[in-house]
Write a structure and sequence with these properties.
By secondary structure, the chain is mainly alpha-helical. The protein is 65% helix and 5% strand. Helix 1 packs parallel to helix 3 and helix 4 crosses helix 6.
Length: 187
């Protein structure tokens, strides 16, 4: 054995041995370049979003899962320098992020009935109205409720925790299993 390193689907395998059975060992490694990254973004990301939307039934959550997966793919590709099948790694990582989202939903379920959603939105509206920096910005309860209904479930949850339950951003981030800057984006 020469100790040669071969690039596989985003990882490396010393000696190119039996662990390299991912089906991509005969493909040419694609170097990390802007054109290749843009091609993955333009061709594979939309397909991954459609896949994730079917799995999660929530386009917003699907887009977040794929954005996270694409970011992870980009970091790994940059670190490795070349990759044989970036699409496969994007979809594998997207599947993992879908699993994460499903687990998060089990820990913090979104209300399913119209009555539960209406009650949650009313509490959120009251919390938002009591926030001094937002008080002058709101016109009517019905407009706020209509706007909140159009938000993705994750953003509604963040707003509910932040304003409805009056939690600070650190607590919201901990409950949503995210970083503080990531949760601030939802506000």
């Amino acid at each position: 054995m020469t100790g040669k390193t071969t690039v596989t689907d985003g990882g490396s395998d010393d000696d190119g041995g039996a662990d390299n059975a991912d089906g991509f060992e005969n493909q040419v490694a694609i170097p990390y370049e802007m054109e290749a990254l843009i091609a993955v973004r333009d061709i594979d990301v939309p397909a991954a979003i459609e896949f994730a939307t079917k799995q999660l039934t929530d386009r917003g959550a699907a887009e977040e899962a794929v954005a996270t997966a694409f970011s992870e793919l980009t970091r790994k590709w940059r670190r490795e320098g070349a990759m044989r099948n970036p699409r496969a790694l994007l979809f594998k990582t997207t599947k993992l992020r879908i699993t994460d989202e499903r687990r998060r939903r089990q820990r913090h379920p979104v209300p399913c009935s119209d009555e539960a959603l209406a009650a949650e939105l009313e509490r959120t509206v009251k919390g938002v109205q009591q926030t001094p920096e937002l008080r002058g910005e709101l016109f009517t309860d019905s407009k706020v409720i209509a706007a909140l209904k159009q938000l993705p479930a994750r953003q509604r949850q963040v707003l509910q925790l932040r304003y409805g339950d009056d939690l600070d951003l650190d607590d919201v981030a901990a409950l949503m299993a995210e970083t503080k800057p990531a949760e601030a984006v939802h506000l």
